[in-house]
Structures are given as C-alpha cells and as structure tokens.
Design goal:
Its EC number is 2.7.8.5. This protein is mostly helical and 192 residues long. The protein is built from 6 helices and 2 strands. Strand 1 and strand 2 form a beta hairpin.
C-alpha cells in the first residue's frame, strides 16, 4: 500500500476516534469561553478533525506529485472524506451544533452521488472526485472547523460564520451533485 492510500486509511481510522471524543467528553468539562460555550471537547475534536482533514490534502498531493494514483485511492478517498465529514455533521446536527436541514441535504447528495458512482463502476468506470466535489469537501471541512470551535472568534463580534459556511458548503454540495448526475446519468438512464 502506497503512502497516499495509507493516509486515506488513517483518515478512516480517525473517524471512530472523533466519535468517541465528541460523544464521551461532556461539554461542561473545561469550558474555555463561556460566551460561545467553547470547551475542551470541542478543541480536542477540532484537533483530531483538523489532522484528519490535513491527511486529505496530503494524500492527493502526494499521489499526483509521485504518480501514485490508484483505483483504490480513487475509490477510498471520497469514502474516507464522507465518513469523516458526514459522521461529524450528523453528530453536530443531533446536538444542535449544525443545522439539520443542511446536514440532511448534504447527506442525501452524498448517497445519490455514491449510487451514481456504483452504477458507473458496474460499467467499468471509476469516477474520481471532480473539482466541485473537492470544493464541497473543503468548504465542509472549514465549516466544521468553525462550528467545532463554537464559531470562535466570530462569536465575539456576533457573526454566525459557521452557519454561513455550512450553507455555502450545502449549496456547493448540491451543485457538485448536479454535475455528477449530468456526467453519469447515461449509465443510470440506459437501463430504464
């Protein structure tokens, strides 16, 4: 297994760690900023999530630079991203830290795109993430970082930046889903 694929697998392994930290450490322990509610749990989850997000940046760059792009990487990288991001989005929606409608829209988009990819794979086509899908993932990761930090430092001046970024990520998510559908619809529609 090459280094980019190892980084992808590391990102997948970090998902249960994020879940354990987020769900098992009470937000009442180690409150850092009483105004925003920022606590130790948020900082620890943020640090693990940020480290996992950096592996996403690194695995792609290393794979392209060293010509280490594999079918496994094309397949596993988007799954690792979705596992990490969607798991955290769902937990944050459940605790009220993220807007439920935005999370549902992004999750539905991911399920549809995964279905399209599976149909394309049955036709021998492995579909890697496009530029809009990558932008969606970056926006989601940035939004999650701000939300994990309880909108700090923007909370100090009353700007709901985490929510703004989450909705921008939702719009990019829907747009990139539309692009995937247009690109892959021939595989789905041919069997109708």
């Amino acid at each position: 297994m090459n280094l980019p694929n190892k980084l992808t697998m590391a990102r997948i392994i970090m998902v249960p760690i994020v879940v354990i930290v987020y769900l098992c450490i009470p937000t009442t322990i180690g409150v850092i900023d009483p105004k925003s509610g920022l606590a130790v749990r948020d900082i620890l989850t943020f640090l693990i999530f940020a480290a996992a997000s950096i592996t996403d940046l690194l695995d792609g760059r290393i794979a392209r630079k060293n010509n280490l792009i594999t079918s496994f990487g094309k397949f596993a990288d988007p799954i690792a991203d979705k596992l990490l991001v969607n798991t955290l989005l769902i937990m944050m929606a459940a605790t009220g830290q993220a807007n439920l409608i935005a999370v549902l829209l992004m999750t539905a988009r991911d399920l549809i795109v995964d279905g399209l990819r599976m149909v394309a794979a049955q036709h021998g086509r492995v579909v890697s993430a496009g530029i809009y899908g990558k932008c969606k993932t970056v926006l989601q990761m940035i939004a999650l970082c701000v939300l994990l930090l309880r909108n700090w430092p923007f909370a100090l001046i009353g700007i709901p930046m985490g929510t703004i970024l989450l909705w921008l990520a939702t719009l990019m998510s829907l747009y990139s889903g539309y692009i995937y559908f247009v690109k892959l619809k021939k595989y789905v529609l041919e069997s109708m």
